[in-house]
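Why do we care about 3D structure at all? Because function follows from shape, and shape follows, mostly, from sequence. That is the central idea of this module. The next example makes it concrete: a single protein chain, its amino acid sequence, and then its structure expressed as tokens.
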Amino acid sequence: MLSMSDLNPESAVVQSVVDEKKEKMIEYIRALKTIEDAMEPYKEQRRELRQEFKEQGWLDKEEIRVAVKAYRLLKGNVDIDQLISIYDSLHRAARGNS
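And the structure:
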């Protein structure tokens, strides 16, 4: 019995590329799962750290959020003066005070 690839060689090439892509996606997902599984204990530690600071009354939820945002900005080498300028412009525009 003849298959579609026997009738159309281009179709066989396309199918080969599709099969290769599927295999690479499966490989990627497996690697991603391995990494995420390895990260889980650290995520749990982060949750526990956040909870401890709340329970001890050292920081509330909003203060923790602001601290994390500040950390991410520092880590990302964000130009704080530019950020403030853009934030102020957006804030004024949102309030209708261009």
